[in-house]
Amino acid sequence: MAPWASHSSQSRGRHHAELPAPTRNAFQRDRDRIVHSTAFRRLVYKTQVFLNHEGDLFRTRLTHSLEVAQLGRSIARALGLNEDLVEAVALAHDLGHTPFGHAGQDALHECMEQHGGFEHNLQSLRVVDQLEERYPEFDGLNLSFETREGILKHCSRPNAEAIDALEPGGVARRFLDRTQPSLEAQLCNLADAIAYNAHDIDDGVRSGLLSLDQMQEVPLFDHYRLQALAEHPQLKDKPRRWLYESTRRMLSEQVYDVIDTTRAAIAAAGVQTADEARLAGPLLRFSDEMKTRSAELKRFLFASLYRHPQVTQIMGQAKQAVRELFDAYLAQPSEMRAEFAAREDRHRAVADYIAGMTDRFALREHERLTGRKLL
């Protein structure tokens, strides 16, 4: 590994001291704990863009997390970063996501607006720090500082101040100091964006909400479509094949762009250690040209897919389900599992309970408690 990588032997450790594992380093141990967690298994039935019941081949939070981990490992290997840490962060970054994707998150935030709000990145940290119950000596998974830091991708200042008061100089400090997380954490943020832009094209076309003609209007994508057809003219009458080939080329080019741009940025910054990298500003990045073209793609997907009338109609019902579940549990906490019903902070207990649900369990609970079937 490069000298500016996060070496597990130099980790800032865990909240609760543990003896080293005989066959795994600290970040490998974190990854294994994440994979075996209940929250990780639930991701298979949590929405990425399309609800689980809309089709078997659409991405879920689980398959998205696996794709982020794959892209992250590939880039980390080329840059000499810590692949184990990248994999752990990538697999855990969505553990706090609600059912029904961003619609569920927005609805839960509205319900919690007067009670601390709801942020899915902060919820992911709550999952690994508190909500998982697997070990006799502590709550949560007791992950390494570096993995926890990478999981907390975004954090509002009030929440950062609250976390830092409980954990001075800990994972939230960078949001107050305006410094950066590890290069591995920065990498996961970028791999996340690369992954969802690519797989949302695939899912959008598969669903019929995006047309192949529409995709040709996006400069970044159409560049690789034309390239693929020039080299393989037989694909002209095989749209699914040229869609895959164009997307594959786009993914690869974005990966190579990140690698080349980051190498140059690290060299220019002259960093020699992981701690120096944290003080050097964002170093994991696209070139200016690729950043502009990727932003165009993101705006297109936002307007044409995420705000498609069919998607917004379904997500409107999903928000309704979350809001009505919240009200029902708030009025009758005994309808929740006993450990949630017994908590004093009823609003946060309800938010934690709903956030942990899969799409299908949330819909079953909504029908049970309201007598009405949505979606």
TrEMBL record:
Keywords: Hydrolase
Biased segments, Polar residues type: 1-11
GO biological process: dGTP catabolic process
Keyword Amino-acid biosynthesis: no
Limits of the HD domain: 61-197
SMART domains: HDc (SM00471)
PANTHER family listed in its UniProt record: DEOXYGUANOSINETRIPHOSPHATE TRIPHOSPHOHYDROLASE-LIKE PROTEIN (PTHR11373:SF43), DEOXYNUCLEOSIDE TRIPHOSPHATE TRIPHOSPHOHYDROLASE (PTHR11373)
Record-given protein name: Deoxyguanosinetriphosphate triphosphohydrolase-like protein
Organism: Limnohabitans radicicola
